[in-house]
Amino acid sequence: MILKILGSIFIFLSSSLFGMYRVTKIKFKINNLKKIVNALEILESEIKFITPLEHAAKNISELETDQFIKKFFFNIYKSLNQKLNSAQNIWLEQVNLLAEKIYIEQDDILHLKSFSHVITNLDQDLQISYLKKIILALEKKIIFLDENYVSRKKLYFNLGILFGLLIVIIFI
Predict the structure, then answer these.
(1) Number of folded domains in the chain?
(2) What are phi and psi of 34, to 5 degrees?
(3) What is each CA distance from 131 to 74, 82, 124, 140, in whole angstroms?
(4) Which residues lie closer than 8 Å to 28 by C-beta, 6 or more apart?
(5) 40: region left, alpha or beta (phi > 0 left; psi from -120 to 50 alpha)
(6) Which band of pLDDT confidence, cut at 50, 70 and 90, is reported for residue 22?
(7) Secondary structure class of 70 (helix, strand, coil)
(8) Pairwise CA distance, residues 37 & 158, whole Å
(9) What's the pTM value of the predicted model, to 2 decimals?
(10) Cα(30)–Cα(51) distance, rounded to whole angstroms?
(11) Domain that includes residue 141, residue range
(12) d(CA 89, CA 77)
């Protein structure tokens, strides 16, 4: 009897926690996208002041507080400084590494990768306009996820609780 009660409590808590996990995953995506947008806005201002990409990446890595974004730009700086590869390939490589470490979706990764097409272009206005398009797309995604978070927060939490209760009732 005690095992049944403990098992029921465990099942109920684990399903409730799973519901909360689903909601927190959305919140992590929102926070990660906000940090990326902030870093891209700094990159945009660095480009406006005609800072070479190498120095811009170093400046952003020094300003950024998020470890993954900081490492992203520091690795870009380090690779450009050592001239290991072209700027385009370095950007793509670092976006792939960043995508493995943070919660963002494939379309967000494609937006970030698309900047590699103009990163080596000497036209400053083209780079800035491309960054603005990427930032706008990511901000739209943040707004969508915020609305999604609010609507799904109660849904996932309640579904987790109800699913846990259902399983407990079936086993009892």
Answers:
(1) 1
(2) -65, -40
(3) 19, 25, 11, 14
(4) 102, 103
(5) alpha
(6) confident
(7) helix
(8) 32
(9) 0.83
(10) 29
(11) 2-171
(12) 13
